[in-house]
Structure formats: C-alpha cells, structure tokens
Amino acid sequence: MAASAPRRFVGPADLHLHSNQSDGTESPAEVVRQAAAHGLRTVALTDHDRTTGWDEAAEAAASLGLTFLPGMELSAKHEWRSVHVLGYLFDPSDSALRAETERIRGDRIGRAERIVRNIGRDYDLVWEDVVAQTAPDATVGRPHIADALVARGIVRDRTEAFDGILHPREGYYEPHYAPDPLTAVRLITDAGGVAIIAHPVTAGRDRMMPVPFLERLVDAGLGGFEIDHRENTAAGKRMLRDFAARHDLIVTGSSDYHGAGKPNRPGENTTSDEMVERLIARATGTAPRYP
Ligand code: AMP
Ligand code: FE
Ligand code: FE
Ligand code: ZN
Q: How far apart are CA 284 and CA 278, in angstroms?
C-alpha cells in the first residue's frame, strides 16, 4: 500500500468505554484487553471529563492490533438535566477545553465531599472511604461513593446505592458544576473533535432535551447521537433516528462499559463502519491510532 493511502479502521467498533481514570473499575489497558476479548477491533476510551487514559489505552490497542479513537465524556447540564456529551478525536491540548474539564473535575471533588458529609449524618461513611475507592487523579463521581458504601457493607453493589442512598430523592444528593450542552458541543467542535450526545433518551419523566434545543445543538456543531445504548427507550430511539436522518447526523451504538461497575458488556452495542468513517472524516483535532 502506498504510504499516502488513507488508513482504514476495522470493525466492529465500540465507542464508549470507561476506565479507572473515571468511574470504570479497570485500568485503560485492561479495558482494551476486555474489548478485544469480546471481539471488538476498534475502540474509544471515553472517561468522564479527562483524557489521561489515552496513552495507556492506545499502547494496549496497538499491541492487540486494535484501532484506538481517543475520546471523552464531557459533563454538561441543561436546566436540571444531566447531559453527557461524548467528544472524539479532539486536540487534547486545546486550552479552552482543558480549562473547562479542570473546572468540572475540581468542582466534582467538593461536591462529592458534600454528598459524603450528608450521608455521614445517617451512615458510617467518611471521605477517606471514598478516597480509598478512587484511583489517583481519577475524575471522582457518585460511583466511587457507591463503592465506599459497598466496602462499608451498607449496600450490596453500585446499583443498590444508586437506587437508594445516591438517588436525589433520598436527600443526600448535591449537584456539580457543568457547562450548558451548547457550550460543551462548541468546546469539543472548536478543539477539532466530533460531539455526540451520549444516551440522549433514557427513561424517566422529562429526561430528554426538547427537540427545538436539539436543533440549536445541531447549529452549534453537534455531530450526532448515541442511539444504540441500553438505557435509551425504544420510542426515543425511533424519534432520534428520524431526527438524525433529517439533519444528516452521525448515529453511534456503544456499550458504556464500566468494568464491574455496571452490567454493560463491551460490544453489546456497536457502531456501523459507515458511521465510524464519517466520524473520522469529520474530526481534525487528533488522528485515530491505527495498529
Ligand atoms: P455523577 O456524574 O457523579 O453524578 O455519577 C453519574 C455516573 O454514575 C454515571 O456516569 C454512570 O456511569 C454512573 N451510574 C449511574 N447510575 C448507575 C447505576 N445504577 N449503577 C452503576 N453506575 C451508575
Ligand atoms: Fe459513568
Ligand atoms: Fe454517561
Ligand atoms: Zn459513559
């Protein structure tokens, strides 16, 4: 093959995986090994609000013959709704995006401490318990508090923690700073990346952003939606597929693997070759790492 010929990736592709750099339970290299063991040939690492796992994951992918797409799941908020914006192939040195992720991560620490203080009024839980469950420098979140509750024998697993103590209705919840989704999409796009709204239509009253707001996201540079995801509702997927077709957007499918932290398995949803190609063609921030 001529040196100038474009390198092509090989499917199947799973573009949403978490490591212990955020709330997954495995190292970046182990996540890639698990993905390979589940038959995937192209993977993206998408830790919450940080990119520190990229090098380790890329190295593991290269040694296993997988294509690696650097990514991140950026925290955002629309009114009261938590919105997750997946960013792919952006420039990790972009100063505006870096400043925003630093701000989010910093605020997440104080927020997690406040949640733990609230819980500590009724249960035997202290901040050190959470620190013990969090990899050095990881983006801290409620899953680490859940793991601390498990270690203390207060709940059986993360699911029980999220259904109970960590649920906002229980009164211990605190929010953290996050940018508006329009800002999140612009930051990723301006850094040369492709912004894809993660699990946009999960079950629950009023969880979906209104359609006119989705249209504003498209105007702001939105690349597409993660449609095949176990938490999206069937009706929501139909609506989004239609919306995506009308606006010529990318649609992805992914597992949202968190190691032992969630039942999601690598490759339980995948993204079509055509859509991965569109995503790669659209990005200018950083190149895919081909084996
Ligand atoms: P936070 O961003 O700190 O509010 O925590 C939200 C994170 O918790 C999400 O990124 C999910 O990965 C995780 N999460 C939400 N619900 C559950 C659940 N039922 N079991 C395990 N992890 C969950
Ligand atoms: Fe997560
Ligand atoms: Fe998410
Ligand atoms: Zn995720």
A: 12
Ligand 1 atom 14 nearest Cα: 143
Distance CA 200, CA 10 (A): 27
Q: 13-100+178-282, what's its fold?
A: TIM Barrel (3.20.20)
Total-model pTM? 0.97
- Residues 256-289: tens digit of each pLDDT: 999 999 999 999 999 999 999 999 999 999 999 9
Residues with CB under 5 A from ligand 4 (ion): 73, 256
Q: What CATH number does domain 106-170 carry, 1.10.443.10, 3.20.20.190, 1.10.150.650, 3.40.50.300?
A: 1.10.150.650
- Looking at the CA of residue 140, tell me the nearest atom of ligand 1: 3
Nearest CA to ligand 1 atom 6: 142
Q: How far is the CA of 200 from the centre of ligand 3 (A)?
A: 9
Write down the H helix ranges in 38-170. 54-64, 95-120, 127-131, 142-151, 158-163
Among protein residues, the one whose CA lies closest to atom 11 of ligand 1: 143
